[in-house]
Amino acid sequence: MKTPRLSRRKRALLNCAPIGKERIRDRSMRSAVFRASDSNEFANQQSFDRALHELVRIIPIPPATAEWFSTKDLFSPSKWTWKKTLRNPAVLAVGIALVVIAGVLVFQFVARLNDFPGSPTARKLLTIAGSTRSVVLDPVNAEAGTLSDLFFMKHGLEHYDVPPEFADFHTIGCRVFEDDQSQRVAQIWVSEKRMQFFLFPAERDVKSGAVLRFPGWRYIHQEGWIGAVTERGGVCFMAALRGREKDLAAYIPKAKQ
């Protein structure tokens, strides 16, 4: 009997039909086998498949090859130890990313712990200090402490006084400019380690307008620059230089002795 006319899908199913006697679970496969079960073509195919199966079963497998297809390796789930998991490139990449993110968050948190009223303005001025060239300042040959009169008489700036700690430093140049918040800032460049001074209005309470004061000196860092800031009479003074905190701290205790 010839194989009945079957669709391409059912013919593909017959080509991989099982040769055992167990019940076929797949409905489509079961239907295709049932329709072709009485045909000589399908019977010959089944006989050929069984003969090939028996031939393959009696072929000896080398021991080394048999280890590749051991029952344990094929059917038992692989055991991932924690060491093997950590060596996985994907796990390592995720772990490194999490460590970097955590480090950035901790750094920002620690930096904000030292914030004080006026610290955002001080950071911006440190950036200006790093980009300023001496040619943009007006040449001045005087001690820094004497410039308060110049700021008052020429620019009308009151209490723009250089603290005694830095009053004796020799001045190279100075200028007055407006920042991005239209605040008038005085900038002084001195010869001592090419240090720069900034005098700017202290931060005020939005509702009451009262000056937000803070005691002593506060340090602030920005792009390789270090600044020491203090507030006196509603005006903040910042001494800034490129370096580390200890480079600037050496000048501040000197005036406290």
Provide a quick synopsis of the model.
The chain is an alpha+beta fold.
What does it look like?
- The protein has 257 residues and is α+β, with helices and mostly antiparallel strands.
- It folds into 2 domains: 52 residues, no CATH class; 140 residues, no CATH class.
- It is built from 11 helices and 7 strands.
- Strands 1-2-3-4-7-6-5 form a 7-stranded antiparallel sheet.
- A hairpin with a 5-residue loop joins β3 and β4.
- α1 packs across α2.
Q: Cα distance, first to last residue?
A: 117 Å
What's the helix-strand series?
HHHHHHHHEHEEEEEEHH
Q: What is the total domain count?
A: 2
Oligomer: single chain
Which properties best describe this structure?
11 helices; 257 residues; seven-stranded antiparallel β-sheet; alpha+beta
How are the SSEs placed, and which strands pair?
Layout: H1 8-15, H2 27-36, H3 40-57, H4 63-68, H5 71-75, H6 82-86, H7 89-113, H8 119-131, E1 138-143, H9 147-155, E2 170-178, E3 184-190, E4 196-201, E5 218-222, E6 225-232, E7 235-242, H10 245-249, H11 252-256
Antiparallel strand pairs: 1-2, 2-3, 3-4, 4-7, 5-6, 6-7
Helix pairs in contact: 1-2
